[in-house]
Write a structure and sequence with these properties.
This protein is α/β, with parallel strands linked by helices and 350 residues long. It folds into two domains: 12-241 and 298-339, Spore Coat Polysaccharide Biosynthesis Protein SpsA, Chain A (Alpha-Beta Complex), CATH 3.90.550.10; 247-295, no CATH class. Helices cover 33% and strands 12% of the residues. It has ten helices and eleven strands. The chain has helices at residues 25-29, 50-57, 71-79, 101-109, 131-148, 167-170, 193-203, 227-259, 287-300, 324-327, and strands at 12-18, 38-43, 62-65, 86-89, 114-118, 125-126, 160-163, 208-212, 214-215, 334-335, 338-339. Strand 1 (12-18), helix 1 and strand 2 (38-43) form a beta-alpha-beta unit. The chain is globular.
Length: 350
């Protein structure tokens, strides 16, 4: 099975964080589709034969050593090494089916920029999730949808694919380990990474769709996920992201009201028209209208039909947002010409 029959095809990079997954890797690597641009395995200081098994099964695999602890740091280290056009996040424990990669890539080829895996919609399912985790996921998912006007059905599922040009928007913590941070975890280094990515992609105005995925039971070993402590980290991430967005948009709106013009007006002093639609450059003042339109579109969309949408973006005005890197008092790194940090501009995809 090939990843795509499209010509020219997107170069697909698969990033696999792994820690002591030597027994599971044969099931994962052998099931990968043909035609991938690269497979990047990020090793989390495994004490078993994870690296040796990976190289034996797939000689072309690229091994990256993560710089701190946690799934978030592992993914960030892998993303920093990506050279493809499309990035697929795949777990190494065998719970995610590599055969579904083609479906995720097809969703991006159809126009989406972020394909979000879901176990609770579009034919997805789970043979692994517990009742407690399902309830917690549902509560956190509802909170994100309420606060950020998203339509996610499975916030905490880590099987996703997205266009590589979104990487700067994710603004993940620096992958550089400095001093005592080598054995520490910065904010964003843990399982909260998935929620952080989901929220930042939505707030950036990316085109989002969901892809049904069936989660299997972990084949060997024990998961590092702790439902309570990791759930708290996810909740704190949601609240921190909301506070940051509110502070930025509130400050931008006040500046527009006080000055009567947008900071990006033309050089000859002409002011941008505001009114009901807000500033032409950034749309300040139009967020409520955009949310109403989005709600109307939801009601008009059949539940089982494919949906590609944008959440109302509070960052359209181009105001600077305190980043995760700033929150952690560190800076984004630059590897292979691609910065894992924040982008200053966004296209509207038209």
């Amino acid at each position: 099975m090939r990843i795509t029959d499209r010509e020219p095809a997107d170069r697909v990079s698969v990033v696999i964080p792994a820690r002591n997954e030597a027994r599971n890797l044969p099931h994962v690597l052998r099931a990968l589709p043909a035609g991938l641009h690269e497979v990047i395995l990020v090793d989390g200081r495994s004490v078993d034969d994870t690296i040796e098994v990976a190289r034996r099964l797939r000689p072309d695999v690229r091994i990256v050593k993560q710089t701190r602890r946690g799934k978030g740091n592992a993914l960030a280290c892998g993303f920093a090494e990506v050279t493809g056009d499309v990035i697929v996040m795949l777990d190494a424990d065998g719970s995610a089916d590599p055969g579904e990669i083609a479906t995720f890539v097809a969703a991006l080829a159809a126009g989406a920029e972020f394909a979000k895996g879901t176990r609770f919609s579009r034919g997805g399912g789970s043979h692994d999730i517990t009742r407690l985790r399902r309830l917690g996921n549902a509560a956190l998912n509802s909170l994100v949808n309420l606060l950020f006007s998203t339509r996610y059905t499975d916030l905490c599922y880590g099987y996703n694919a997205f266009r590589a040009h979104l990487l700067p928007t994710l603004d993940l913590p620096s992958v550089d380990a400095v001093g005592a941070q080598v054995d520490a975890m910065l904010w964003g280094d843990g399982f909260e990474i998935e929620t952080l990515i989901n929220i930042r992609v939505a707030r950036a105005g990316a085109r989002i769709t969901e892809v049904g995925s069936v989660e299997k039971r972990r084949m060997h070993g024990v998961s590092n996920l702790n439902a309570f402590s990791d759930g708290i980290r996810v909740l704190r991430t949601i609240l921190a992201e909301r506070h940051r967005a509110h502070r930025i948009c509130g400050g931008a709106a006040r500046a527009t009201t006080d000055q009567g013009l947008h900071a990006g007006h033309t050089g000859n002093g002409d002011r941008q028209a505001g009114g009901a639609d807000g500033c032409r450059s950034c749309g300040i003042g139009a967020e409520r209208r955009a949310t109403a339109v989005d709600s109307a579109e939801r009601r008009a969309t059949a539940v089982d039909s494919p949906v590609v949408y944008r959440a109302p973006s509070p960052l359209a005005c181009g105001q600077h947002e305190p980043s995760v890197s700033e929150h952690n008092h560190s800076h984004s790194s630059l590897r292979h010409g691609r910065q894992v940090g924040r982008s200053g501009t966004w296209s509207d995809g038209s």
